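Batch job 17 of 40 flagged for manual review because the log was empty.
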Amino acid sequence: MISTPHRQTAIALIVDNVTAGARCGEACSELEISNHTQRRWTKDSQIHADQRPLVPRPEPANKLSASERTAVLDVCNSTEFASLPPSQIVPKLADQGDIWRLSAASTVSCAQLVSSITVARQDRRSGANCPPVKRPVRPARYGSGTSHGCPDRLWACFFTFT
């Protein structure tokens, strides 16, 4: 999305070029926008701000409810399935005839739900909350600071012409 100040600058550049004798389509193509975009931005001889962020977005009809979400998480976090990815949990439940335990959740929605929870857990554990990890110090390589780690290495290429 282009901010309103950038739109104003682009339109000013286009107007300057058109008054200097250029065609509107060529001036727009120099800024890599279409002529239709320029007309849409300057409707009613005013520069309009982008309205897309302000539009209310309805929730999807197939969004899991809170009870379905907790049921899916309970199944995925159970001891039987804790070490399996959702791509293996759903077929395993289908084989056992217990697919009803996941209710309306598909493999993809289970995977998205589990990954969102995993990311949230990783965010909680990162940064200042974790104690520092001591890693062993690696020994210095022989000839460090020189070409390819070895000071006296000779690189040679032999070419034969036939």
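Reviewer: the log was empty due to a logging misconfiguration, but the result itself is present. The radius of gyration is 31 Å. Unflagging and moving on to job 18.
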